[in-house]
Fold this protein.
Amino acid sequence: PVVMALEEDRFRIVPASGVYLEELPLASREFRSLPLAGPRLVRSPMPSDPVEKTKALSLGLRGYDIGARPTLWQPWDAAARAEALAHARPLATLAARHPTQRAALDAAVAKTGLQASGLVYIPMITFREDWVALLDAAKGDVVGYAPLDGF
């Protein structure tokens, strides 16, 4: 994976082969090359311009969701954290939906070093399994992951 992109209410894990490479030279300077040391955390908002929105929908039908488009990548900053927190869900909801996987969730929470009450989650779209990203409920930072279906 080269990118973990926040697409409004979910994270998308994008492998190098899934990046819309035609846009790489057109991206912001910091996003013109793919990272070699693991995925970069970015925000990928849906364009508001009607022409760009139509392009995003068309490319999405071809398999290039907004998280796979370098020209839409934005830094993981205060705006990204605020958007993530606005769409995050309470961890208690996840625990209630997966009572038989409580041990996996408890282990993931323990790895964060935070209390469960201080965490929220956002579902992740990966290319293999169901996962969720755990976020610090106060700061909006991604602090861990759990192998559970967040949808």
